[in-house]
């Protein structure tokens, strides 16, 4: 859940404090300024990728990545949201990939870069991973499916 601490850095980045049910919130930097107003981000549940190597963005360390879908024409960006009754820290996974995630993806292996092109929203507004063979795996938590409001066929980053 994104809670207080939302700020901007040179107008193009949001600096968010996100509650993941851990000891303290994580600082996350996202490039959503031109797509969303601060009030659209505050006090809402989102889906994050948490096992990327922390990265500095304009001098601020970001400890996760907020997942969002972008429409095919690039005009609309929507946050991937978990089911309504989700709680901070609920784990999301793609169907068929429920195993224990690696604590930190090795950036030299380019795992994220290999997976990201297969991340899409479908016609049912669900967040999915489309395997090389075409099999569709839906992103979900134990409480249900993660998705978006209106972006069909969008890429997820």
Commentary on this structure:
The protein is mainly beta. Strands 10, 11, 12, 13 and 14 form a 5-stranded antiparallel sheet that branches. It has a 3-stranded antiparallel sheet with strand order 1-2-3, with no helix packed on it. A 3-stranded antiparallel sheet has the order 9-8-15, with no helix packed on it. It has 2 helices and 15 strands. Strand 13 (136-141) and strand 14 (144-145) form a beta hairpin. 6% of the residues lie in helices and 34% in strands.
Rg, Cα atoms, Å: 15 Å
Helix and strand composition category: mainly beta
In DSSP terms, counting alpha (H) and pi (I) runs of 4 or more, how many helices? 2
| Shape summary | globular
Strand content: 25-35%
Mean pLDDT: 92
Main beta sheet, described?
A: 5 strands, antiparallel
Helix and strand pattern: EEEHEEEEEEEHEEEEE
Number of strands: 15
Helix content: under 10%
Distance between the termini: 18 Å
Properties at a glance:
single chain, 2 helices, 5-stranded antiparallel beta sheet, 3-stranded antiparallel beta sheet, globular, 157 residues, mainly beta
